Predict the 3D structure of the following.
Amino acid sequence: MTASPPPDVLDRFAVPDDVERLDGGQGCSVRAGDLALSPDRDPVLQEWLSPVQARLAYELDLAPGRHPLRLVMPVPARDGEWVVDGWAATRFEPGVVVCHDLDLVLATGRLLHAHLASAVPECPALLASPPTSPSRWDRAEALAFTPRAQWPSDLPAPVRTLGALLDDTPLGPSQLVHRDLASNVLLDPRGSALVIDLSPAWRPVLWAEAICVVDCVLWHDAPLTALDAWRTGRERQAMLRALLFRMLSDEPSQLESYRPALDVVVPDLLGHPLAHPSG
């Protein structure tokens, strides 16, 4: 577990040193005063993303009428930096609860992605090339969209077998998407959906939705029947890439955890080691 922010970080974000660990995510975020602080943030990424997010969050909060969608507001340090020693801040939102209702999370994601497509109409250079210091999620995303012939030879056989099912079916245009929606949609006291921890990728919306569906099914008690719509066509191709993304990003590997989803999406592979990763 990541330690609490050091005194210099708290000072530069102008918050007291009485911190409280927050639930959810990786269990590493803390509340300090009126801010939520999260570690392990990429300063280069946040220098681009945080102003985009702040502008959209402001516009959404100022929209007239009911606010079906809100975006958490990033907050810079006193010197204008968005990341201090790996820590980034957002405005703390009291009274929120995590939403795991799949239909509501998906609807929130579609509304968010429509706003992101308008706010960022072209792929930024930062997302057009591999990051200098890729995270395990960055590496997994890249492999999920890399032709199988170019994969490294040391990937687990079950993963390579799943990759053999990929084809060139188009998943729709790429745009700025949130690749980790399932645990990052909250409901505020007014009932508005509040999206936090924006994890950016320049990929098709359908892929982001597939990740959301499989996450909700495997980890948040959504019914397995939610996967039925992802068994054929481009939906299946999006789900295959979503499953590969999750399977490849796990540290340590948890291939067996994906068997319930695999049994629905790729029932033709029942009996293959893919369906029994420990075999």
Q: What stands out?
A: The first helix runs from residue 7 to 12. The longest strand covers residues 87-91.
